[in-house]
Amino acid sequence: MIVTQITHHDLDGYGASTVAAAFADVARVVHVARYSDVGPVVEDELKRLRGAAASETLLMTDLGLEEPTIAFLRRFAAMNRGRAEGTHHRLVVLDHHASSIDQLKRQNLETAPDPERAGLLRADLGDAEVFVLIDEAHCATRMAYDQRALYAPEAKVPGETAAADLAALIESVEALDLWKKGEPAFAGGLALDEMFWDSVSTLVPASHPWHDRFVSDLLMAAAGLLRAGSTPAELERRSGELRARLVDGLLAGEAGDDPALTARQRLARALARSDALFHRLSDGTLLSFGLDSGTFQRVSDQVMEAGRAKRVVNVQRAGTLSFRSIDGTALDGARAFRGGGHRDAAGGKLPQGSAHSREDAVAQVEPVLNPPPPDLSGSPFAALKNWKG
Predict the structure, then answer these.
(1) Mean pLDDT, range 39-43, rounded to an integer
(2) What is the DSSP string of 202-249?
(3) Which of 25, 96, 145, 248 is deepest in the core (most CB within 10 A)?
(4) What is the C-alpha to C-alpha distance for residues 351 and 336, in angstroms, rounded to an integer?
(5) Which segments of the chain does DSSP mark as H helices, in order?
(6) SS3 category, 92
(7) Which of 360, 327, 365, 333 is nearest to 347 (CA)?
(8) How far apart are CA 31 and CA 357, in angstroms?
(9) 98 contact partners, CB below 8 Å, separation of at least 6
């Protein structure tokens, strides 16, 4: 069964996706930075699942249950009721926020204690394939491990070393996420968090197929060092070494790779050749979404130098646009979005203020940069177009 995961864009969210990938072949991971974006993201997923012929599993971790998300839970259950027998989708929601319990009550969904696990609460949506679990005492990373049978009934079995590193990762993430400052693992959790934020968007962006593999492998390697007794300071000093080693693996056999460059410079060359990272607009502009500004600077330069495009634009979740060009048109693009800057480097702001995905960004940018021709059918002169006196 195809598994898709939607998870929070923080250490616990990535810890949960790392755990899920250890036990299931997760086809796609969507990282959501802001709880306000969860509603649009799950609605997109619901549209996709309605058209899916076979059963799939949707795993949601560490997202908080706000009103739009709870409305989605009800629509998911309603969709399942309308599907043919044997094609029902499965929804697994693993959350640990106290506010989620309050929100469920406001939306007339009560939670009940799980009979087998103390502290675990369940919300009943009237669908045997919908599991909404809340456990305030554990982080999402641990919940993904404890509840793995729900999304990975035929779970892969990690090797002995991988299993030990995974246990160390779970312990460190939980100590940090629940702010258990008195536990020995807390200091390691802080070090993991610092490494995570230093690496999550600066090297391999979330819109690239290598992203989750890179971040999960980095977290597992760091957890292995902590398990072996490394101090937070030692982990910090070795973080560059860990990243470089992972980049060596990603770029093994990659044409044009130059090991003499920094990890970021090497990756920029590979990313610039990626079709998955960009959407080509109708005027030839290449659009990327959510790239770190330094990464975008390097990647856009490589893209234009290779002749793939004369103009590139990166859209951030917060709605800012960064244009780069080699023909003086970056400023023209920025002006269309109430912005300004240099002729070949300029910026603006989305009309709707933010974007939750690349598809959302494309839907907002395309009609502004390349407005459709006016519809003259409603003109009072249209009727005279083919009239002959």
Answers:
(1) 91
(2) TTS-TTSTTHHHHHHHHHHHHHHHHHTT--HHHHHHHHHHHHHHHHHH
(3) 96
(4) 10
(5) 11-23, 38-50, 67-81, 98-106, 140-146, 148-151, 160-177, 185-199, 211-227, 232-250, 263-272, 293-305, 330-335, 358-369
(6) strand
(7) 333
(8) 10
(9) 136
Taking 90 as the threshold, does the pLDDT of residue 220 lie above it? yes
Mean pLDDT of the chain: 92
Largest CA distance in the chain: 93
CB 72 within 8 A of CB 50: no
What is the C-alpha separation between 77 and 55, in angstroms, rounded? 14
Could you identify the residue written with the tokens 């012929």? 53
Please count the other Cβ atoms lying within 10 Å of the Cβ belonging to residue 232: 16
**pLDDT over 90 at 356, yes or no:** no
- Strands 56-61 and 2-8, by their bridges, are parallel
Strand arrangement of the beta sheet that strand 279-280 belongs to: 279-280, 286-289, 311-315, 320-325, 345-349, 340-341
Q: What is the DSSP letter of 374?
A: P
Neighbours of 279 (CB within 10 A): 18
> In this predicted structure, what is the pLDDT of residue 253?
85
Global pTM reads 0.89
Average of pLDDT values for 209-220? 95
Residue type present at position 81: R
Alpha helix locations (H) across 259-357? 263-272, 293-305, 330-335
Which residues have C-beta within 8 Å of that of residue 30, sequence separation ≥ 6?
4, 5, 6, 7, 41, 45
User: In this predicted structure, what is the pLDDT of residue 256?
Assistant: 82
Residue given tokens 């087998």 in the structure block: 116
What's residue 374's pLDDT?
A: 74
CA–CA separation, 223 and 218 (whole Å)? 9
Residue from 200, 194, 191, 180 nearest 227 by CA: 191
DSSP annotation of 376 reads: G
CA 319 to chain centre: 16
Q: What is the DSSP letter of 372?
A: P
Beta bridge partners of 111: 123
**Which token pair is 145?**
């491990």
**CA angle (236 as vertex; 231, 239 as ends), nearest 5:** 120
Neighbours of 278 (CB within 10 A): 24
Q: How confident is the model at residue 290 (pLDDT cuts 50, 70, 90)?
A: confident
Looking at the predicted structure, is the pLDDT value of residue 379 above 70?
no
Residue 38 has pLDDT above 70, yes or no: yes
